[in-house]
Structures are given as structure tokens and as C-alpha cells.
Design goal:
Blueprint (H helix, E strand, L loop, with lengths): L3 E8 L6 H12 L4 E4 L9 H9 L3 E4 L12 H19 L15 H6 L4 E2 L2 E2 L9 H11 L5 E5 L5 H16 L2 E4 L1 H8 L8 E4 L2 E2 L2
Parallel strand pairs: 1-2, 1-6, 1-7, 2-3, 4-8, 5-6
Antiparallel strand pairs: 8-9
Helix pairs in contact: 1-6, 5-6
């Protein structure tokens, strides 16, 4: 019987202190995830985090260079945002990103036309809102759990509540029979190829 699989995906890093704690947790639990990086967050000071992510079997994906609403950009600026971020990532990892998550999940036809990477949304837990407790975040993660689902969380500054939520959610997901893999493994193991001009929160079901 095929095992149920999910992917944890982290946005807005790398962030010294928070990303370290996320990676400590992933290493302790023996699982892989995917990190959607903001290009300008990747600096000589944060480079060690990207290298550690790769060393743990995580994949590094594209979340734009400046994290702005890209629907307001010209085609040229859209392409530059993607290219600069991919170049920074490839310089450290040796690999090009294979997926893109739009900042704020703001998307329009112009972006689809000018970004060749598959678009990923993900099922979130409102963890960009400081007032949402770790318990609430955990509850939403577990409610969103299903085969092929990508969970959207953030390894951003002062986001300890998400780490606390995951400390409870990850063991519970394992208990429910889920294997947590990186996003590339999720698609590969499902035998699904993402379609252009669609955005996904689950590999089996594009959201638009």
C-alpha cells in the first residue's frame, strides 16, 4: 500500500535563529522539507543555513528577490526577480530552484506568462499573524493534512510559535501515517507533473 505523503514548505528565510531551530527540529525528527527563499535574505551571514538545509536533504526553491506584490511589476522586473533569486540559490547549492511561491500568493496572468517555474500555494495556518497561537497553528496544520498536501509555514523573524506548533504537529502527522518529504519528492513519488498556468496546494489538485 502506498504511504501517505506530505511536504512542509517554509517561506521568507533564511533567518538566523529561527531557521536554525527549524533545522534542528527537522534533523531530530529525521524529515525533509522545502525552503522558499527570499533572494535578498541570502547573504554571507545566512549562507550557512542554506548549506545546512541542503545537507539535511531539503530542497531550495524561489520566493522572489524582494518579496513584493509582483502583480504590480513589469514583465522585465518579474523576470529579474526570479532570475536573481535563482542565481543566488544556484551559486550556493549548485542547483536551480524547481518551484516558485508568489509573495502574498498574489498572482496574475502576467506572472504566469513570465515565470516558467511551477507555482505553489500550500495550505497555511495563518502563521504570519503574531496573535495566532502555537496551539491554533498546530490545529490548522493537522486539519489541512491529506495525501499530497503542501503545508505553508514561515521561518521568519520572531516566529517561534510555528516552531512550537510543529513540535506537536510533526509527531502527530507521523502517528497518523504520513511521511514528510520535500516538495520535489512529493511530486516524484506521486507520479505527477505540475502543469503551467496552475497553482498547487496539493499535487493532485491545482487550486487555479
Amino acid at each position: 500500500m502506498k504511504k501517505k505523503q506530505m511536504a512542509l514548505t517554509f517561506d521568507d528565510g533564511p533567518e538566523i535563529g529561527i531557521t536554525d531551530q527549524v533545522l534542528d527540529l527537522l534533523e531530530k525528527e529525521g524529515i525533509r522539507a522545502s525552503f522558499f527563499l527570499i533572494g535578498q535574505q541570502v547573504t554571507p551571514e545566512t549562507e550557512y543555513l542554506v548549506k545546512r538545509e541542503v545537507a539535511l536533504g531539503c530542497t531550495i526553491e524561489n520566493h522572489s528577490f524582494t518579496h513584493q506584490d509582483m502583480t504590480k511589476f513589469t514583465p522585465e522586473v518579474i523576470k529579474e526577480e526570479i532570475a536573481k533569486t535563482s542565481a543566488v540559490i544556484k551559486e550556493i547549492t549548485g542547483e536551480d530552484p524547481q518551484f516558485f511561491r508568489p509573495p502574498y500568493i498574489c498572482v496574475d496572468q502576467k506572472m504566469y506568462d513570465n515565470i516558467e517555474l511551477p507555482f505553489i500555494c500550500g495550505r497555511g495556518c495563518q502563521d504570519w499573524v503574531p496573535e495566532v497561537s502555537a496551539e491554533e497553528r498546530c490545529r490548522m496544520i493537522l486539519e489541512a493534512a491529506d495525501d499530497g498536501v503542501m503545508i505553508l509555514v514561515h521561518d521568519m523573524k520572531k516566529n517561534e510559535n510555528t516552531i512550537e506548533a510543529l513540535k506537536v504537529a510533526i509527531p502527530e502527522l507521523k502517528k497518523r501515517g504520513f511521511e514528510l518529504v520535500n516538495i520535489r519528492g512529493l511530486y516524484e513519488n506521486a507520479g505527477v507533473k505540475p502543469v503551467r498556468y496552475k497553482m498547487y496546494s496539493c499535487v493532485y489538485d491545482p487550486v487555479e
